[in-house]
C-alpha cells in the first residue's frame, strides 16, 4: 500500500515558536479574555477530551448559548478556513470572533487589553516576546501559535498507514467502505476533511427533515459569500476526533457517531447502510484518534 | 574677553553645497539600489503568482477528471495565495498585478465551488452502478434503460446530450412499475442521476466560467506592464546614473575649486607666516612667544644667541621648564624696573614682556651689554677724572670755565668755585707772547687739538712749567661746543728729564762721560777740525790686570779700582779734554787741540806712571798697570768709529809688546788686521773644501830607540806652499773655526793612526793639540768619547796636548773639564812647557800625565848651560811628580845624547823624522822598524 496513493495522510506537527506557544496557552486558559471573566477558550474547547464542548450549543458570557456547535480546536490548523461557515481565514483571524461575539466573550479588544495590562508580569512576558508588547495582534498570534501546536499525532490509523502498527479488520473494512461509498470524496486529506465546503443535504432535504425551524446559522457559507449556491453549505469537518464527539453537525442535532454516519450516508450519499457497515466505519473513525499531551488518553 | 569671530560666508556656503550634493548623491545611489531590489521582488512575486495560476489550472484539470485524491495540496495553494495577497497589501503594487491577483482569487473561489460541485457529482455517480446492479438483479423493467443511461453517461462524458439524457431519465422516472422494490430502485437511480447531472451542469458552468478567465492575457498584461515598468525603471536608473555622474563631476569640480582656494589660502597663510618669521628674524632684539599654556611658539635667532643657545631645541620649551632651568641661562638679575639679566655667557639683556590676546606672553630682549659697558666706562672716566694726576679743565665755546677736577685745584691752587665762569687766562704767566697764543688758536681751529709746554701762574703767584693739551669738542655741525684742557705740572718731570739726560751721557759708576758722549765729543772735534784744522789725540787705555782683580776680589773691588783709576786720570787731564769710560776696564781720553803728536805720548807716559802705582782696594794693595793705544786725528782717521778702532788696535799692539806700554797706531797694524781677515775667509773655505791635512811626527823612546808614537800636526797646503800653523791657528782661535778644525783634526788623526796600528801591527800613541778656545767653544769629554767611538781608537793611546796658559786661569771649571777628558782614558799633556808661567802647583792640581819641553830649550841646549839646567830641573821635577817628559824639536845627535844622559823619556824632532803625511809615515815606520831590528841585531 502506498501512502501517497491514499486519500488520507498521516498527521504531522507544524513549526511553532515555543515562547509564543507558552503565552498562547496561558491566554487559552485565561478567563480574563471574556467580559466578567466567566469563560475562557478552554471553557468550550475542552482539551482533555476532544477540543470541543460536551453540549450541542456552548454557553458564553452570562450563559448565552452560541449559534452553532463548537468545533474541535485539535488539528484546526489544517482547516481551509475557520468556523463552520469559514468566516475566519485562519486561526489568528479566528481569535477575534469569540472575543467580540456577544454570545461568547462579549468584550472588545481595548477592554480586554486594559484588563490584561493590569497584570504586570503578563505584560512584561509579552514585551519580551513581542516588540509591540500586549496588543490584539500579539494576543491573537499567541493563541494561534498555541492552537497550531494542538495536533493529535500517532493515531493507530496513521501508524497503520505508515506500516508502523496494526489496524483491526473491522476498521480496515470501515476504511474500505468509507472509500467505496464515497465518504472519502469530502473527508480526505490529513485531517480527514476540513479542506473544502459542501452542501448539507445533497440527497434529501436535511433541514426539512430535521423538524426544527431554519435559523440564520443554517445558511452556512452563504452568510459569508452571499452566493445562492452557498446556502446550507458548510465547511466539511475533519473527522480525526469525530469518534470522541458528544454531538454532531453544526447544529449538534445528532448525538451518536453511528447515527451521524447514517445521517451522512442518507443525506450526502443518498443511500442507507447496514448496522455492520456503520460499525465498521465507526471502528475506522475510532482508529483516527491520535494523541496530545493536553488530551486524556 | 571679547573675541572676534569672523564668519566666512563663502566657505560655509561651499561646505553647505558640498554637503547637499553629497546627500543628493547618497539619496540617488540608494534610490538606485532600492529600484533594483524592488524590481527583483516584483519579478519574484510575479512568478509566484504565475506559479499559483499554473498550479490552479493543473488542479482544475485534475478535479474535472477526478484524479485528485485529496485537497490538502489545493488547500496549501490557497494558503500561498492568501500570503501573496497579504504581502501585496503591505506594499504598493501595480494595478496589473492587483488585477492579476484578483483574478487568481476569483479562480480560487471558483476552484472552491468546483471542488464542492465535483464532489457532489461524484457522489451521485458513485452509487449508480450499484443501483443498476440491484435493478438487473430484481428484473427491473427499466434496467436496460438505466444501463443505456449509465453507458451514455460514462461513454459520452461531458459532451452528453443533455436533452436526450433528460428525456431518458424522465422516461425512466415516469415508467410505471408495479413492484414497490422496483419503484424504490427507480427513484434512487433517477435521484442520483439527477443529482449527478445537476452537479455536472454546475461543474460545467463553473469550468466554463473558470476557463473564461483569461489569466494568460492578464499575466501577459502584467508582464508587459512589469517590463514597461522595468524599462521605465531602467531608464530612470540610467537617468539617475547620468545625474549621479553629473553630480559627481560637479562635486569633484567643487572640491577641486575648494581645494585650490584652500591651497591658495594655505599659501597666503604660509607666506604671511614666513613674512612674520622673516620680520622677527630680522629684529635686532630677541623675540620669544609663548602661548597661553606656556609653550614656546616662536623665537628668533637673536633670542637664542642672547642666551647662548645654538638651536631652539636646546632652549626650554615651556615657561615651567624655563623657571626650572633659569639658573642655567641667567646668572644675575636686577630687580630694577629695567629688568636686566646677565646671561651665562656674560651678556646683559633688558627683558620686556607683554601679554598676548590669547593669554600667552611675548618677550623682547635687548642686548644692553654695550650700554652697560659704556656706563661702566663713564663711571671709570668719572673716577679717572676725579683721581687723575692731570688737571682737567673744560670750557664752553665762549671760553668760560665749566668744570675743573681736583688735580686742577691741586696744581693751580684754584678751587673749582673760584674759576667757574671765568676765563682760563687767569692762569696766564705772561711769559708767552701774542704770537704763541695765535699759533695755539690756529692749531686748535685747524687740527682740533693742541699741546705744548707752557708756563703758567699758580694762585699763589708762582710760575711753573706745565704740559697743556687742549682738545676742541665739536658738535655734529662742526661747531666748537667746548674745549677740554688737560694740564700736568712739569716741574718734577723737568728735573727728571735733566737727570735722564745726564745718565744718558755719563757713566753711572765713575761719573765720567760715557761712550755716547765721547763719540759726540769726537764728532764735534772732527767737525771743528774741518772748520779750524788742528790735531787731536785719542788715547785708548786698557787696564792690564782688571779681569783678574775683578774675578779674584769680586766686582765690588773691580768697581773701586775703576773709581780710583778714574780719579787718578781726572787729575791728569785738562778741562777741555774728555775722559770717558768706554766700557769695562777701558777708558778713552780725547785730547782736543794738541799742538804736536808727541803731546799725546807725554800724557800717555803720565798716565802709565800714575796707574803703575799700587792701588789700595778694600785694604789690599793691588798693582794694575795699563796699555795705551794712541791714534791721531785727523791723520790716522777722520771718522769717529774708525779713529776709535785704530786707537784700540794700537792699544792691542802695546799690550802685545809687553804691558805698561803705549803705542801709536801704524798703518802696518791695519795691514796685519787685513791679513787676518783674509786668512779667516781662506781658512773657512779650506775647512769646507777639506783642504787641510794632518801630518805626523814620530816620537821615540830615547832609552830603547823604539817607536813610541806620533804627534798630529795640522797642515794647510795653499798655492803650493804651506801656511804656517803659527799664522792660521790664532786666526782659527779668534774666529771660532778652531772648534770645527780641532774636532776634524782629532777625528782624522785617531782614524789614521788606528788604521796604521792595525796595518803595521803597532800599538803607537797619538798626541793631538787641543786649543784653550776649544774649551770655550764647547769641546768636552762627550765630544771626545763620541770621536773615539767612531774611529775605534784606544783612549789610553791618546794624549791631548794643551797649553800652559789654560791652566793659568786656575778655574774649577777648567779642572772639571780636564778631569772629564782624563776620565775618558785619554792622557793629558802640557805643550810648550817652560814658556809660560810654569808652576809646580798646577802640575800637581791638574790631572796631567806628560809634559812637553818647549823646543826653544832644546835649541839652546848645546850652547846654553842655563837651558841644560832648566831641562834637567824639569826632568827631575817630572820624575818626582811621576810625569813622563817629551823633548821636542830635537834636531841634532848632540842634543839627543845630552837628553839621553839626562834620562829624558821621549824625544821628537828632525833628528828622527820631520812631520809627514800618512803615506810617508807608513813607509817611514817600516824602514824604522827594519833599522831598529838591525841595530838591535
TrEMBL record, chain B:
UniProt domain EAL: residue ranges: 676-929
Names of the cofactor(s): Mg(2+)
The protein's name: Diguanylate cyclase
Tagged with keyword Transmembrane helix: yes
UniProt keywords, alphabetically: Membrane, Transmembrane, Transmembrane helix
PAC domain span: 450-502
Domain GGDEF: 534-667
Organism of derivation: Pseudoalteromonas rubra
One Pfam family named in its UniProt record: PAS_9
Amino acid at each position: 500500500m502506498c501512502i501517497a496513493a491514499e486519500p488520507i495522510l498521516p498527521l504531522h506537527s507544524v513549526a511553532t515558536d515555543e515562547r509564543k506557544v507558552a503565552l498562547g496557552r496561558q491566554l487559552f486558559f485565561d478567563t480574563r479574555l471574556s467580559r466578567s471573566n466567566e469563560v475562557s477558550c478552554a471553557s468550550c474547547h475542552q482539551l482533555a477530551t476532544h477540543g470541543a464542548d460536551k453540549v450541542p450549543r456552548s454557553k458564553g458570557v452570562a450563559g448565552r448559548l452560541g449559534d452553532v456547535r463548537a468545533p474541535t480546536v485539535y488539528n484546526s490548523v489544517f482547516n481551509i478556513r475557520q468556523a463552520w461557515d469559514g468566516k475566519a481565514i485562519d486561526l489568528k483571524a479566528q481569535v477575534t470572533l469569540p472575543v467580540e461575539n456577544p454570545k461568547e466573550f462579549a468584550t472588545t479588544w481595548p477592554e480586554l487589553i486594559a484588563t490584561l495590562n493590569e497584570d504586570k508580569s503578563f505584560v512584561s512576558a509579552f514585551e519580551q516576546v513581542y516588540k509591540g508588547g500586549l496588543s490584539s495582534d500579539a494576543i491573537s498570534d499567541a493563541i494561534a501559535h498555541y492552537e497550531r501546536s494542538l495536533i493529535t499525532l500517532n493515531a493507530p490509523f496513521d501508524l497503520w498507514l505508515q506500516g508502523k502498527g496494526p489496524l483491526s479488520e473491522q476498521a480496515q473494512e470501515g476504511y474500505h467502505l468509507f472509500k467505496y461509498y464515497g465518504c472519502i470524496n469530502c473527508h480526505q486529506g490529513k485531517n480527514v476533511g476540513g479542506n473544502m465546503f459542501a452542501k448539507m443535504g445533497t440527497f434529501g432535504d436535511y433541514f426539512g427533515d430535521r423538524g426544527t425551524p431554519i435559523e440564520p446559522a443554517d445558511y452556512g457559507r452563504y452568510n459569508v459569500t452571499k452566493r445562492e449556491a452557498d446556502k446550507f453549505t458548510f465547511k466539511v469537518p475533519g473527522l480525526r476526533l469525530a469518534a470522541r464527539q458528544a454531538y454532531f453537525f453544526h447544529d449538534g442535532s445528532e448525538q451518536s457517531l453511528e447515527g451521524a454516519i447514517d445521517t451522512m450516508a442518507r443525506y450526502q450519499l443518498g443511500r442507507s447502510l447496514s448496522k455492520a457497515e456503520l460499525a465498521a466505519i465507526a471502528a475506522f473513525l475510532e482508529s483516527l484518534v491520535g494523541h496530545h499531551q493536553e488530551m486524556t488518553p | 574677553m571679547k573675541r572676534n569671530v569672523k564668519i566666512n560666508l563663502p566657505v560655509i556656503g561651499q561646505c553647505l553645497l558640498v554637503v547637499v550634493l553629497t546627500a543628493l548623491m547618497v539619496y540617488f545611489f540608494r534610490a538606485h539600489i532600492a529600484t533594483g531590489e524592488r524590481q527583483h521582488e516584483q519579478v519574484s512575486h510575479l512568478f509566484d503568482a504565475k506559479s499559483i495560476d499554473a498550479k490552479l489550472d493543473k488542479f482544475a484539470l485534475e478535479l474535472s477528471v477526478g484524479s485528485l485524491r485529496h485537497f490538502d495540496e489545493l488547500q496549501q495553494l490557497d494558503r500561498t495565495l492568501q500570503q501573496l495577497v497579504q504581502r501585496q497589501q503591505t506594499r504598493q503594487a501595480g494595478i496589473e498585478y492587483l488585477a492579476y491577483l484578483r483574478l487568481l482569487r476569483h479562480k480560487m473561489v471558483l476552484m472552491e465551488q468546483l471542488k464542492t460541485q465535483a464532489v457532489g457529482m461524484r457522489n451521485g455517480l458513485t452509487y449508480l452502478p450499484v443501483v443498476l446492479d440491484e435493478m438487473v438483479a430484481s428484473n427491473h423493467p427499466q434496467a436496460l434503460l438505466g444501463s443505456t443511461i449509465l453507458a451514455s453517461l460514462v461513454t459520452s462524458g461531458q459532451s452528453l446530450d443533455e436533452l436526450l439524457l433528460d428525456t431518458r431519465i424522465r422516461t425512466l422516472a415516469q415508467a410505471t412499475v408495479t413492484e414497490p422494490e422496483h419503484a424504490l430502485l427507480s427513484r434512487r437511480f433517477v435521484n442520483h442521476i439527477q443529482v449527478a447531472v445537476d452537479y455536472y451542469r454546475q461543474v460545467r458552468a463553473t469550468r466554463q466560467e473558470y476557463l473564461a478567465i483569461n489569466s494568460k492575457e492578464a499575466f501577459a498584461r502584467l508582464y508587459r506592464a512589469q517590463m514597461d515598468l522595468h524599462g521605465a525603471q531602467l531608464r530612470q536608473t540610467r537617468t539617475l546614473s547620468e545625474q549621479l555622474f553629473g553630480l559627481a563631476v560637479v562635486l569633484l569640480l567643487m572640491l577641486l575649486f575648494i581645494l585650490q582656494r584652500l591651497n591658495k589660502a594655505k599659501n597666503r597663510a604660509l607666506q604671511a607666516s614666513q613674512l612674520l618669521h622673516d620680520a622677527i628674524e630680522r629684529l635686532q632684539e630677541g623675540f620669544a612667544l609663548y602661548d597661553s599654556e606656556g609653550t614656546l611658539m616662536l623665537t628668533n635667532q637673536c633670542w637664542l644667541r642672547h642666551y647662548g643657545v645654538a638651536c631652539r631645541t636646546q632652549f626650554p620649551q615651556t615657561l615651567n621648564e624655563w623657571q626650572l632651568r633659569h639658573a642655567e641661562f641667567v646668572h644675575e638679575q636686577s630687580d630694577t624696573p629695567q629688568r636686566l639679566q646677565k646671561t651665562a655667557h656674560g651678556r646683559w639683556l633688558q627683558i620686556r614682556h607683554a601679554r598676548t590676546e590669547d593669554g600667552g606672553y611675548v618677550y623682547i630682549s635687548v642686548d644692553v651689554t654695550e650700554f652697560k659697558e659704556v656706563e661702566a666706562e663713564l663711571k671709570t672716566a668719572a673716577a679717572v677724572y676725579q683721581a687723575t694726576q692731570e688737571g682737567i679743565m673744560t670750557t664752553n665755546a665762549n671760553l668760560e670755565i665749566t668744570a675743573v677736577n681736583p688735580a686742577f685745584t691741586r696744581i693751580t691752587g684754584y678751587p673749582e668755585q673760584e674759576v667757574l665762569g671765568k676765563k682760563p687766562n687767569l692762569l696766564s704767566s705772561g711769559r708767552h707772547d701774542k704770537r704763541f697764543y695765535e699759533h695755539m688758536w690756529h692749531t686748535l681751529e685747524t687740527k682740533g687739538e693742541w699741546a705744548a709746554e707752557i708756563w703758567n701762574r699758580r694762585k699763589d703767584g708762582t710760575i711753573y712749567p706745565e704740559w697743556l693739551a687742549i682738545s676742541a669738542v665739536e658738535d655734529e655741525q662742526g661747531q666748537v661746543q667746548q674745549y677740554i684742557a688737560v694740564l700736568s705740572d712739569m716741574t718734577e718731570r723737568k728735573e727728571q728729564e735733566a737727570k735722564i739726560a745726564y745718565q744718558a751721557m755719563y757713566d753711572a759708576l765713575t761719573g765720567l762721560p760715557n761712550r755716547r758722549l765721547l763719540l759726540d765729543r769726537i764728532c764735534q772735534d772732527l767737525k771743528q777740525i774741518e772748520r779750524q784744522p788742528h790735531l787731536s789725540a785719542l788715547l785708548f787705555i786698557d787696564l792690564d790686570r782688571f779681569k783678574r782683580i775683578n774675578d779674584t776680589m769680586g766686582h765690588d773691588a773691580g768697581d773701586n779700582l775703576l773709581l780710583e783709576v778714574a780719579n787718578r786720570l781726572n787729575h791728569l787731564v785738562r778741562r777741555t779734554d774728555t775722559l770717558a769710560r768706554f766700557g769695562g776696564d777701558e777708558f778713552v781720553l780725547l785730547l782736543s787741540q794738541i799742538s804736536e803728536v808727541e803731546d799725546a805720548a807725554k800724557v800717555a807716559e803720565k798716565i802709565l806712571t800714575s796707574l803703575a802705582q799700587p792701588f789700595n782696594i778694600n785694604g789690599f794693595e793691588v798693582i794694575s798697570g795699563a796699555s795705551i793705544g794712541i791714534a791721531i786725528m785727523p791723520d790716522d782717521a777722520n771718522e769717529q768709529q774708525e779713529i776709535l778702532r785704530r786707537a784700540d788696535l794700537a792699544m792691542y799692539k802695546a799690550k802685545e809688546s809687553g804691558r805698561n806700554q803705549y803705542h801709536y797706531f801704524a798703518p802696518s797694524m791695519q795691514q796685519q788686521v787685513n791679513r787676518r781677515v783674509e786668512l779667516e775667509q781662506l781658512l773657512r773655505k779650506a775647512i769646507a773644501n777639506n783642504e787641510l791635512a794632518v801630518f805626523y811626527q814620530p816620537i821615540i823612546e830615547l832609552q830603547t830607540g823604539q817607536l813610541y808614537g806620533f804627534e798630529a800636526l795640522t797642515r794647510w797646503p795653499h798655492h803650493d806652499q804651506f801656511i804656517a800653523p803659527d799664522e792660521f791657528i790664532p786666526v782659527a782661535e779668534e774666529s771660532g773655526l778652531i772648534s770645527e778644525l780641532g774636532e776634524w783634526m782629532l777625528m782624522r788623526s785617531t782614524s789614521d793612526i788606528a788604521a796604521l796600528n792595525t796595518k803595521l801591527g803597532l800599538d803607537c800613541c797619538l798626541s793631538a793639540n787641543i786649543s784653550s778656545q776649544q774649551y770655550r767653544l764647547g769641546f768636552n769629554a762627550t765630544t771626545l768619547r763620541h770621536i773615539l767611538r767612531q774611529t775605534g781608537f784606544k783612549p789610553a793611546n791618546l794624549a791631548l796636548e794643551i797649553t800652559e796658559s789654560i791652566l793659568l786661569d786656575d778655574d774649577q771649571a777648567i779642572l772639571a773639564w780636564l778631569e772629564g777628558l782624563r776620565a775618558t782614558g785619554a792622557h793629558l799633556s802640557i805643550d810648550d812647557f817652560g814658556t809660560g808661567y810654569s808652576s809646580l802647583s798646577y802640575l800637581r792640581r791638574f790631572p796631567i800625565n806628560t809634559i812637553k819641553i818647549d823646543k826653544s830649550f832644546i835649541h839652546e841646549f848645546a850652547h846654553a848651560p842655563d837651558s841644560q839646567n832648566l831641562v834637567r830641573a824639569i826632568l827631575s821635577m817630572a820624575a818626582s811628580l811621576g810625569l813622563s817628559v817629551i823633548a821636542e824639536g830635537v834636531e841634532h845627535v848632540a842634543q839627543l845624547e845630552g837628553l839621553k844622559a839626562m834620562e829624558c823619556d821621549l824625544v821628537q824632532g828632525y833628528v828622527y823624522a820631520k812631520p809627514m803625511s800618512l803615506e810617508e809615515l807608513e813607509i817611514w815606520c817600516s824602514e824604522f822598524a827594519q833599522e831598529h831590528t838591525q841595530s838591535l841585531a
